[in-house]
Amino acid sequence: MKITAAAASIGISETLWSRLVRGCVKCSATGLAIFAMGGWTSHGAASSNGQAAKLDVVAEEAQRSSGFSGSVLVALRGQIVLNRGYGTVDGKAGEHIAHDTVFDIGSLTKQFTAAAVLKLVDQGQVRLEDTVARYFPDAPPDKAGITVLQLLTHTSGLTDHAPDDWEVLTRDVALSRIFAEKLAFAPGSQFGYSNSGFTLLAALIESVTREPYTKFMEETLFRPFGLDHTGFFDSHEHWKNLVLAHGIFAGTDKGLPSSWPGPYWGPMGNGEILSTTQDMYRWFRAVRENKVVPESLTRQMFTPHIKVFDKDKDGVESYYGFGWGIRTGPNGTVVTHGGAGFGGNAEFAYFVEQDTLIVVLSNQFWPEWAPNGTAGRVGPARPALELRKRLWEALSAKSTRKTHS
Q: Residue 324: what pLDDT?
């Protein structure tokens, strides 16, 4: 299917694609100026306009009412209007979270892995139609025909090879488990979210580049695009002079991500990246301006390749691209992804028609087995997701309007 045809099939116009893919070119210089200006306070900075004040009130209320702790960035039409931290890095009386505090971003990692694969596609080293067998000749027959595109879009039928991120798991053992998994469905027939699929992509990157996945990511994506507060758990020298937020999982302090074991091959490729709201803004701007890969591949990244959910009660349909979710409904189109785990909860959402970006990184997360009232929980299981919804409601000035979730 042609990219424009796929877009048109869910009502995304070429004008919107241009806005998403090319970004707000006129705002690019403004964005750079914001980063260069300095003038940040110890808790970050916000512009003096009314929107910033309104958003700040929403975030502070979340901190007061449910103990939210994390960093928030909101950019309107390419200009950052709010970028500051709330709460403390350890959830207690520790150092205050700031605009440049580093968090575990969980599954937001998948967009980086997808971009790395597309880099190799651009270089002619990988093709989207290539099968697993090309890179892993020992793959069993039921998995040998899985394509790179199916791995990128969660349509491979693979499930999850490592429920524990901290399990000591080597690359070889991870591959062995992945290839031993029973497929959930025939490859290409439907959507099924798969961490294993992105771990297999990380292994593919290593097979092609002949260097560690983590090194390739740092040298190809992080450093070239100025993501100086982005890296992996074990980048100890890199984190030495930066402030990291503790991971607070089900009310238990899991300590600094830089002290965690690994990175192991459970979350490799599907998690394990640490970053900041500001670096995520820089990253998305580079992607939209086609600086990461050419426009044709950027469009592939944001193409709704597979339907995830039919229309819900609010009229919202969900699709998946390459490492990104695409949602369409009464309030427009949203490019989004979330992440959750030991390090907390992360949310990234770009509202295309409104040219609005919201990034919320929190160091708190409660799994389903820890309902409200247990483990000290007094707020939502996914604090970043809930705050992201509230911020959008405030921006749309209609708090009662149903919004994308």
A: 97
